[in-house]
Design brief:
Elements: E1 10-15, E2 22-31, E3 36-43, H1 52-66, E4 72-78, H2 82-90, E5 94-98, E6 102-108
Parallel strand pairs: 3-4
Antiparallel strand pairs: 1-2, 2-3, 4-6, 5-6
This protein binds coenzyme A.
Length: about 120
């Protein structure tokens, strides 16, 4: 990963293996190698409830902790976004701050279960 890429987004397309259908995106909206990054994710509504984003973020998060050498990963979501909040909490993110309508989540590398089996 070249330092020149810092400050730019890094987005993956999510494609169903069986059909090749493009169903969503996920990745780092911004990051600083060796420090922190912020993830974003978006799945077509038709494909909610199948675990696709859990599986995708299960790859994107360790990529951040290993290839990008991040110490912390953040995610910001509307407080009313129950699905996004449930997903983040299942992945081990904890609430770092709450504003009027946003929940800010954080995951530290030492708390990522798959980084230290
Ligand atoms: C946030 C978002 C990605 C969550 O989608 P999702 O489908 O709930 O999340 P997943 O793909 O991980 O699926 C999890 C659901 O699938 C179910 N599931 C079914 N099979 C599964 C499997 N094999 N593995 C894991 N979960 C599975 C889970 O039980 C869970 O359902 P539940 O939430 O009703 O308990 C989606 O709502 C979205 O794209 N929203 C619009 C964009 C957005 O809000 N982005 C966040 C901005 S920060």
């Amino acid at each position: 990963m070249q330092k020149a890429l810092q400050g730019k987004g890094l987005t993956w397309a999510i494609v169903l293996e069986a059909s090749g259908e493009f169903v969503g995106t996920c990745g780092y909206e911004n990051f600083v190698i060796g420090q922190s990054g912020e993830i974003g994710f978006d799945l077509a509504k038709l494909h909610w409830g199948h675990g696709y984003m859990s599986e995708a973020l299960g790859v994107v998060i360790p990529y951040g902790f290993t290839v990008l050498d991040l110490f912390t990963i953040e995610a910001h979501t509307y407080s009313s976004n129950a699905r996004a909040r449930r997903l983040l909490e299942k992945l081990g993110f904890t609430i770092a701050a709450v504003t009027e309508d946003l929940h800010c989540y954080m995951l530290a590398r030492e708390n990522w279960p798959y980084a230290h089996p």
